[in-house]
Design brief:
The protein is α/β, with parallel strands linked by helices and about 220 residues long. The protein is about 40% helix and about 15% strand. It has seven helices and seven strands; from the N terminus they run ααβαβααββαβαββ. It has a seven-stranded mixed β-sheet with strand order 3-2-1-4-5-7-6, sandwiched between helices. Strand 1, helix 3 and strand 2 form a beta-alpha-beta unit. The chain binds S-adenosylmethionine.
Length: about 220
């Protein structure tokens, strides 16, 4: 199942560190970023000598096409944020325009790295719930602003199958945020926690130091 019309915006390494409470030891692991889109996470991590592979269906497109898609969605998204300004916590960004500029700056970093990274196999055009990757190919999987956030578009079955797949390629999966786009808690958090706990996984909801959607300061950490 593909997420149509998703805004392919990306966040920075600093934001990933906060969203996923990444320690120095975590950063040194073989990491897979699922649904990274035009985040600068991979580019920045690679520059620092770390190992990250990003997977996203958007990587079937050229740098120019991705840039165009981000630019097309820029105005509608920024104006939606402006209309719902009270849903967000304005600590790191003082307003919607500043947020937009930060997202474009992250995309520019991503674009500079994209062709080299794709040639090196760091940007793979693949889609959940089924990935052409080996069992335990990675040590840590991070998935931000895809699962749970798009609960209105992606079913519970999609979530369960996707997380099962991520736990196949990595023994640990971290998902952020647990909220939907309307900033309400995803109804899938509870069934996901129950499903993977009953399979013997260690499942933990952990508070983190990142909050942009009000109340969105928790991630789900699953270890099999
Ligand atoms: C809102 S963006 C989040 C980007 C990045 N993770 C971040 O937080 O900055 C959601 C991303 O999920 C990707 N996506 C959509 N459907 C997907 C699927 N089935 N499997 C993997 N990624 C998908 C989109 O292309 C998009 O880049």
């Amino acid at each position: 199942m593909k997420l149509n019309g998703v805004v392919p915006w990306g966040r920075t390494l600093e934001e990933y560190k906060l969203m996923f409470a990444l320690s120095d030891a975590d950063l040194s692991k073989k990491i897979v970023g699922c649904g990274d889109g035009p985040a600068s996470f991979n580019a920045e991590m690679t520059e620092l000598g770390y190992s990250v592979v990003s997977i996203d269906p958007v990587y079937q497109f050229s740098a120019e096409q991705i840039k165009q898609r981000v630019q097309e969605t820029y105005e509608p998204v920024i104006s939606q944020v402006k209309q719902n300004v009270n849903r967000y916590y304005w600590k790191n960004f003082s307003n919607a325009d500043e947020l937009g500029l930060a997202r474009l700056a992250a995309m520019d970093k991503f674009l500079l790295d994209y062709e080299t990274g794709a040639a090196a196999g760091r940007y793979l055009p693949q889609s959940l719930p089924s990935l052409e990757l080996f069992d335990d190919q990675f040590e840590l999987c991070v998935c931000s602003h895809l699962l749970f956030l798009y609960s209105e578009q992606l079913s519970l079955d999609f979530h369960l199958a996707s997380i099962h797949e991520l736990l196949r390629i990595s023994p640990e999966v971290r998902i952020f945020p647990l909220l939907k786009l309307d900033c309400e808690l995803s109804p899938y958090v509870e069934p996901v926690v129950q499903e993977f706990s009953s399979r013997g996984c260690n499942v933990e909801v952990r508070s983190v130091a990142y909050e942009f959607q009000k109340g969105g300061n928790q991630m789900l950490k699953i270890n099999r």
